[in-house]
Amino acid sequence: MKKIGIFYSFRSVKTKQQVAKIVKYFGKANVQEVDADATTGDEMMQYDKWILAVPTWFDGELPNYWDELLPDLEDRDLKGIKAAIFGGGNQKDYPENFVDGIGLMANFLENLGAKIIGSTSTKGYSFESSKAQKGNTFVGLALDIENQAALTDERISNWVEQLKKEFYAK
Question: Which residues of the chain have pLDDT under 70?
């Protein structure tokens, strides 16, 4: 069984804490952590199952390291790639673009043929709009450790259980 690549910035303290929980729930032997600041499209293509940490910066933007990496992916065929996306946002201070980064990344990957998995309910969140929202779901896992830290562990645990099924479904 091929390992799952989990791509995130090793410099992001909050994201690193979230990744540690995801790795714990998957089991370290099943997941390979990859620094999004230093990886390439070729390195990403060594995995057919991706977990991408995409926090939302500023007013609904992708972090710089993703902006720098995406051009290396834009001419690739991602059919056969299953991608799950999670990211942090702040629904109280940025309610009009809560976790937009998740939605931006999902759209980018889908346009290249990747299958996005790991949708989660919008229930329990309070925000005005989000590019990550489709109907009553987010296209990934939305985390708000600024305002809902107490819910983070349970959300991650439930999401990983869901991903275990979706990654290996035919």
Answer: 1
